[in-house]
Amino acid sequence: MLKFADRMDGMRASDIREILKVTAQPDVISFAGGLPAPELFPVEDIRTAFNAVMDEQGRTALQYGETEGWYHLREQIADRIGKKNGIKAKAENILVTAGSQQGLDFCGKLFLNPGDVVLMESPSYLGAINAFNAYQPNFVEVPTDGDGLIMEELDRILATTENVKLIYVIPDFQNPSGRTWPMERRKQFMEIINKYEIPVVEDNPYGELRFKGEAMPALKSMDTKGLVMYFSTFSKILTPGFRLAWICASPEIMEKLSLITQAAVLQTSTLNMMVVSKYLDMFDVDEHIEAIRPIYKHRCELMINTMRETFPEEVKFTDPDGGLFTWVEMPEYVNTRDLALKALEQKVAFVPGSGFFPNGGNEHCMRLNYSNSTDEKLVDGVRRLAGVIKEALK
Question: How many CB atoms are located within 10 Å of the residue 107 CB?
């Protein structure tokens, strides 16, 4: 009989990945995955960039490269996050990863021993929960409200909890809630972090998909002690298939992350990095982002307005200023795992909310995605879901 490592006992399949297997059926309207709209991918521009790379540097693109990533791309990333997020960084502060998920795994490997404590928003991104869970920590959930993490609760928890090794947060258009921290909370957070000197993962995959309100500075831009590791990605603004993301961190952390990368994967794909770098040289990515924002804004507003028209008044949901998700809270007696099965009978899929809480519970919540559906499917899917909800509330 095979004997697996103890860490495998706590690992479970992602609710999203399991549901996506079902939603591959063409007749299912899916609000489950966080998928960007494929019709918005700049296919022809990527093709042009790819051909230019192969014509100019084909042999280099097909060869091994630096562990930290293609240097010119790292320069471009450092320059971009400086202009967009107020983060002072150089190429040497950037590690390119195969998606943010790989970066989350690396941070778990870097900071966590079995029994260490990870603080997360309640709810939080289930991919991060699964990544950290492999290193057998204890999770402590920090309460949230309509403006995100409640800082008084964070301070209280840090003052009374031993062995906190890592804090994971998504301040912009949080996955799954869609909430964004206001400026005052960002300042309070950094004051608390500097007080206790706990490493922070600031995950910002959706920050450039803002379609209402004013952009907020990154936590990393206020980091004076090198405690914040800033994560972002090309997956939501360009193409998820390349699996290109990055971590911006202090030299001390970068040194360790480089060692972990060498041991795990050696490097991220040279070809993919060079194609994206060439795309950034040849085309205006900001122009592309400006073109996709209104479409996501329209789809978000269409979903929210249809929910307002059709959902029972007992059902509450967020109205995000950007990103890809809205968060729905049902009366507490409703189990959304059961509801998901009923919805699938009506050919509608969503992700039940309990998976977004590292310690379980909260079976009455769900996450809905609006980015990857046509107008017709959005309205039809919400109406079908409303019918299932009304039946459950009887």
Answer: 27
